[in-house]
Amino acid sequence: MRRHGPAVLLALTGAAILRISLFGDLYLRYVRPGLRPYLIVSGAALVLLAVTVTALARRGDGRGGRGEAPGQERGGVPRRPAPHGPRAAWLLALPALALLLFPPPALGSYSAEREAERRAARGVGTFPALPAGDPLDLTLGAFASRAVYDSGRSLDGRTVRLTGFVTRDDDGTWYVTRLLVSCCAADATTARAEIRGADGPPADTWVTVTGTWHPRGEQGSDAAWPPVLDVTDVRRTQQPANPYEKR
């Protein structure tokens, strides 16, 4: 079994990658949609490599067994045993098994609350005009950027609709939150809006809220963050297939 250990590890890892990328949308918990083809190719390559390693190992076993005594090459010359890695290397199979059998959930309120409130240092300026019609569906990232940095105050008088999961402060203040990624979950940052005018459901519940922007603080300052939404409607919703927004 130890002889085929590398092939088993390769096969497990490849199967886990294919499981989350080829047979569903689980990969969206960890990376952006555009990376799916690369995951599929990588998973298939690992499985193919595992098959190749297994075939070569069996071929070597077959050649070494033609009338030779164990531990000997042809002509009676002692054969050096094949090197084996440490048994602890099998621990590398645990992450692959976990991904294959029990894929971890997407990042939620725990990660959002511990991610520093980093905001793009883009400065205050004007933003492109918003489409006509209310309510206006916006991402959390777009809403937060306009609320904090738009000198043209394009959100004034507009009814907006935001979707995200609930996070809470110790004092009971609650927020609609979304994690923004550039590449994958490892580089996620947080966008959120403080919700006023309605009680919120428990943390990590996905909701769609409708309301109007409540200006506060000087734009571009710390006092303007996080932006505030006076809500008229709060509805629970299902977590979307892609729980992240593009940063």
UniProtKB/TrEMBL annotation:
Record has Cytoplasm as a keyword: no
Residue segments, region Disordered: 60-81
Transmembrane regions: 39-57, 88-107
Keywords linked to the UniProt accession: Membrane, Transmembrane, Transmembrane helix
InterPro entries the record matches: DUF1980, DUF1980_C, UPF0703_membrane_permease
Short name of one Pfam family: DUF1980_C
Highest taxon of the lineage: Bacteria
Span of domain DUF1980: 148-244
Key word Magnesium present: no
Protein name per the record: TIGR03943 family putative permease subunit
